[in-house]
Amino acid sequence: MLVQDVRGPVCDLGEGPWWDARTHRLVWVDLLAGFVHMLDPGTEGCRTVVVGQPVSAVVRAGENWLLTVETGFELRDPEWKTLSSYEIFRKPTKVRMNDAGCDPAGRLYAGSLAYDDREGLGCLYRLDQDGGCHELVTGLGISNGLAWSPDHRTMYHVDSAARVIYAREYDETTGSLGAAPVFYTHTDDDAMPDGIAVDAQGGLWVALWDGGRVIRLDATGHVTAQVSVPALRVTSVAFGDEDLRTLYLTTARTGLNEATLKAYPGSGRVHFFHTDVPGLSVAGAALFSLPDSSPASPHGCPRRAT
């Protein structure tokens, strides 16, 4: 497959690609820099919004924008003015929010990690349509990619530190999670699975941090394809364009020395290639307000889900 790059900005830590079907634009973030980029693939025109703090994911919430930021969530209007916020962690924080994604019903699931990479401090949260926030899973290393199976019965969830992808039982009606059998463990090299996306056949495309490639897993967890990328640290993937046959890849250059950057000149850029099997459309958030109060604590744990 021919891998190309878009003429967008070079990011230190590109992350969170999301296809905005409303405007036919690719949205992604430069996470620690606190930038949101919005690219029109047709014209290659790109708008950048300065969030003012680390931002790990952005999705639509009606006409507004829902952001996963360093300490929790923000809701912003179409022109990016802050409407409300919900704090899980208090600043200064040793833990921050990370990758996020919406389930088919419009709930937002978002993970967290420790700034110093200590394992066991990561959690997975769910933000419901009414703005209620629930802690679902604790004791994770790096809570990362999230995606749902075509039949909406499984939520795939990555713990990058463990190099594992779980196939968690998922109830679309309630948003609750059940058993979490291991779907895939990456043992080929020192790369870590990062962001993920599901295609219409149930194949799971996986970005490999420090792997210089993306892989596709079939519904049984076996590798069926791999595509090399001119960036060592591939962070996430998302299907886009009208037919959802373009897979966009975000990458990072953070922490790489000059020799590695020379060997991987596409580090920090967004790349793409075309797939034979289209991706699944990804929902935005069915959310129009955030709660007035925040349960922030030094431990970053709001109330447990029931």
From TrEMBL:
<dbReference type="InterPro" id="IPR013658">
    <property type="entry name" value="SGL"/>
</dbReference>
<dbReference type="InterPro" id="IPR005511">
    <property type="entry name" value="SMP-30"/>
</dbReference>
<dbReference type="InterPro" id="IPR011042">
    <property type="entry name" value="6-blade_b-propeller_TolB-like"/>
</dbReference>
<feature type="domain" description="SMP-30/Gluconolactonase/LRE-like region">
    <location>
        <begin position="13"/>
        <end position="253"/>
    </location>
</feature>
<dbReference type="Pfam" id="PF08450">
    <property type="entry name" value="SGL"/>
</dbReference>
<comment type="similarity">
    <text>Belongs to the SMP-30/CGR1 family.</text>
</comment>
<protein>
    <recommendedName>
        <fullName>SMP-30/Gluconolactonase/LRE-like region domain-containing protein</fullName>
    </recommendedName>
</protein>
